[in-house]
Amino acid sequence: MRYLSQTGMGTYERCPQKWKLHYIDGHPTKPNRFLNLGSAVHAALEAFYQGRIAEPAKLDEMIAAFEAELEPAAYANAEESAAARADGLRMIRAFHAAHAPQFRPALLVEDLLRFELDGVPVVAKIDRVDKLDGTVRIVDYKSGFRPPRLDEVRQSEQLTLYQVAVERVLGLEVAAVGLYHVPSQTLFEVPAHGPERVEALRRRVLRVARGIEQADFEPRPGRHCSWCDFRESCPAWAHEYPENWEQTPLPPTPSHAEASRLADRFGELKDRIRDLESELADFRAPLEEFFRITGERVAAGDRYAVRATPGLGYRFDDAALRALLEPAGLWEKVLVPDWRAEESLLADPDVPAEIRARMERLAQVEEGWTFRYGPAAAAQADSRRSGHGEE
Ligand code: SF4
């Protein structure tokens, strides 16, 4: 059984056929202006916190992460794309102005937590987890125009799922959950969801898992079909697209000789992929060096451009860290299943300053890079539009 996510369950509940067309048949979703703007703003907010202990990302780093995620194909025309870009930049600047002066590092940012609920595999992708006094708060970003109501926060199935994920996977106590409305820079926060919401989540997960297991993929046509990406492949709309539903004869079963030929070809292609992956890895190091030394974030060729987004990570020598933390009774704190536990400790004002200073001396700060690539022409157009040389 595949992992169920909040998005996947929501899709199945709205229309099981849509879930099948996407998750089983592999029909891709089309770029969409609302989703694209939302994910570009999320990328900027992720950059603000990701790997940051003492101070957040600079505004231009947030903007670079935002620009890298913008997808011109998601917008009907250049005006719409420019308007979305302006909206996004406005939100990002306001976010930086509101949060950079009193920066508090996040415990987790954009993390995937996997667990099982009554035997059903579930995955939660959480925007942010904040450390409170011995407890944590879960925050999900909303970049839509309308601010959420507190009742929505209290009843959000998504937040219940994230809360259960944090409690089960990380063993942390969740004190509060909230939706952060980015356009108004407002956090709508309520206490952690109670057992009745957790029970409702359990029933929901089981209901969706049972439907999928029983191959219940009935189309549920309705108003939502107007913006469904898979309408042309949906049996409920077959009458509108008869050409898509004409029977095509099944291909003949391959003979043994043909299967041998296919096996050879399969192996050859796999070998080529392995060689190409190794060649790709050889290109990565010098490109990283270029971005690191020059401070630039785009390298453009005649046909393609590569955009790089930097991030920082800390690495410790386990034995040295243990020798420092164990006598202070802090070693247990980094044994939790949280890959950023050491960074949290570094930012924890309750940890004596002397210990934090010694930890900082032990830490090896490592740079990491995310690469994205696209047509060189798009990078040049972005550069002209934004009016600055780097992007
Ligand atoms: S077109 Fe409507 S009925 Fe068909 S998959 Fe999409 S949402 Fe479901």
Write a structural description:
The chain is an alpha+beta fold and 391 residues long. The chain has 2 domains: 208 residues, Lambda Exonuclease, Chain A; 102 residues, no CATH class. Helix content is 47%, strand content 18%. It has 13 helices and 8 strands. The strands form 2 sheets. A 5-stranded mixed β-sheet has the order 1-2-3-4-5, sandwiched between helices. The longest helix has 39 residues. 27% of the residues are buried. The C terminus is likely disordered. The site of iron/sulfur cluster (SF4) has 15 residues, from helix 2.
**The CATH architecture of the largest domain:** Alpha-Beta Complex
Gap between N and C termini, in Å? 42 Å
List cofactors, ions and other ligands.
Answer: iron/sulfur cluster
| CATH structural fold name of the largest domain | Lambda Exonuclease, Chain A
Rg, Cα atoms, Å: 24 Å
> How many extended strands?
8
Report the principal-axis shape. Answer: globular
Q: What string, H for helix and E for strand, traces the elements in order?
A: HHHHHEEEHHEEHHEEHHHEH
- Mean pLDDT comes to 88
Give the C-level CATH assignment of the largest domain.
Answer: Alpha Beta
Q: Tell me the β content.
A: 15-25%
Number of domains: 2
Assembly form of the protein: single chain
